[in-house]
Amino acid sequence: MLEIRNLVVDHGELRAIWDVSLDVEAGERVGLLGANGAGKSTTLGAILGIYKASGGHIRYKSAEIANREAVQNVEAGIALVPEGRQLFPEMKVRENLEMGAYPRSARGKVAENLDRIFDLFPILREKQNQNANELSGGQQQMVAIGRALMSSPQLLLLDEPFLGVAPVIIEEVMAALNRLADQGVTFLLVEQNIHRAMEFVERAYVIENGRTVLAGSKQQLLGDPEFSNKFLGLD
Ligand SMILES: Nc1ncnc2c1ncn2[C@@H]1O[C@H](COP(=O)(O)OP(=O)(O)O)[C@@H](O)[C@H]1O
Ligand SMILES: [Mg+2]
C-alpha cells in the first residue's frame, strides 16, 4: 500500500531525512520508532505531502505521491493525526471534527462519519458542544483522531498519539485503534513510547538521524539486543 525508498527531506538548509525506506501493506499495523529529533514527524509529513521530498520515492497504491499536494493525498485515503494534536482550542469539539471533512469526497459523509466517531469515542458525543480546550489531554487526542477519521482514511498516520495521555485513556484509545484496524484501516504509528507502540504494532522500523537503521517483526525486535540497547529505559 505504501512504499518508501531512499527518502530524503530537507527543512531549508537542514537535512532531516537522509535515507528512509519502509513498506506498509494494506491492513498492517506498522511502527516507526526513534528518539526525539530522529525524523519521524518529518517522514509522516512527507507522506502526507506537507514536506517536499528532495530525493527518493513515496508510492501509495502504486502511484508516486512524493511532492503531491496534501489535499490530494487525503482524497486518496491518507490521513495524519499530527504531533501535539493541533486542535483549535477555542472551537467546539464538533467544529474541530468537521475540519477533517475538508476534502470534497468527505463533505457528503459528515453526519455518517460523526456518528462513527461518536460510537468509537462516546465521550465526544457528550462533549461535542464544548470547546476543545475544556477537554482532558486524552479526550483532545480522541478529537484529533476523530478529525482524521472524517475523511474516511484507509491509511492512518499517527504521530505520538499517547504523549501526554493518562494510562487509563491510552487503553481506551488503543481499544479504538484496534476497532479501526478490525474495520480494515492500515496504520503507521510513530511513538517514543516504545512499550505502548509495541503493544499495538505487528512490525516496526527504527529511525536514527534520518535513516532507517533497524526493521523487523515485533518478536524479532524485542529479541534483538541492538533494539534493546537503543530503547531499553528510553521510556
Ligand atoms: N519545520 C521544521 N523546520 C526546520 N527544522 C525542522 C522542522 N521540523 C523538524 N525539524 C528538524 O528536523 C529534524 C527531525 O525532526 P522531526 O522529524 O520532528 O523528528 P522526530 O519527529 O523524530 O522527533 C530535527 O533536527 C528537527 O529539529
Ligand atoms: Mg516528532
* Alpha-carbon distance between the two ends: 31 Å
Number of helices: 11
Q: CATH first level: which class? A: Alpha Beta
Q: What series of H and E elements makes up the topology?
A: EEEHEEHEHHHHHEHEHEEHH
CATH superfamily: P-loop containing nucleotide triphosphate hydrolases
According to DSSP, the number of beta strands is 10
**Compounds present?**
adenosine-5'-diphosphate, magnesium ion
Give the name of the CATH architecture.
Answer: 3-Layer(aba) Sandwich
CATH topology: Rossmann fold
Structural class: alpha/beta
Number of domain modules:
1
Strand sequence of the main sheet, in spatial order?
A: 6-7-8-3-9-10
Keywords:
11 helices; binds magnesium ion; alpha/beta; binds adenosine-5'-diphosphate; globular; 10 strands; 4-stranded antiparallel sheet; 235 residues; single chain; 6-stranded mixed sheet; Rossmann fold
Structural write-up:
The chain contains eleven helices and ten strands. It has 235 residues and is an alpha/beta fold. It has a single domain (2-231), classed as Rossmann fold (3-Layer(aba) Sandwich). The strands form two sheets. Strands 6-7-8-3-9-10 form a six-stranded mixed beta sheet, with helices on both faces. Strands 2-1-4-5 form a four-stranded antiparallel beta sheet, covered by helices on one side. Helix 8 links the parallel strand 7 and strand 8. The two termini are 31 Å apart. Bound molecules: adenosine-5'-diphosphate and magnesium ion. The site of adenosine-5'-diphosphate has 11 residues, from strand 2 and helix 1.
